[in-house]
């Protein structure tokens, strides 16, 4: 397994002792643009599951850099703190800012895995706005269908069925698989 940084390795080993190191690294002002160390730290702090990271992550969610804001909101959600929910909702609808550091498909997965009762409504709302003429929307479409099928909420069936005749670039049978789950065969229980 290859790790992007020591922060990711620590998260993988569940070393919550390293939390203090990450928090000390960024005590001063946060960078105004992309910073790979900050990005790795934010993502790992969300995975470590230590609630002591919430205050730092909330500060990151107020960063001047959009990618840092979104990553922090995802990490907060992973820790059970929905204070960044509005940022994630905005990010899911903002196809003009979808670049390497901020992927709407990943945000959709984070929202789906959160267990937040608003997740299905938000994912369905985004599904209604999909425009596959945008490359990032095509990737997001796949993630939304997968996530909604995993959650298993029956309200997802008709919105997913509308994509039954769409030709997915890499995923033949995606809609059929999702509908099979939603119709009761191999359904993952709703959260």
UniProtKB/TrEMBL annotation:
The lineage of its organism: Bacteria, Pseudomonadati, Thermodesulfobacteriota, Desulfuromonadia, Geobacterales. It comes from the Bacteria. InterPro entries: ARM-like (IPR011989), ARM-type_fold (IPR016024), PBS_lyase_HEAT (IPR004155). This is PBS lyase.
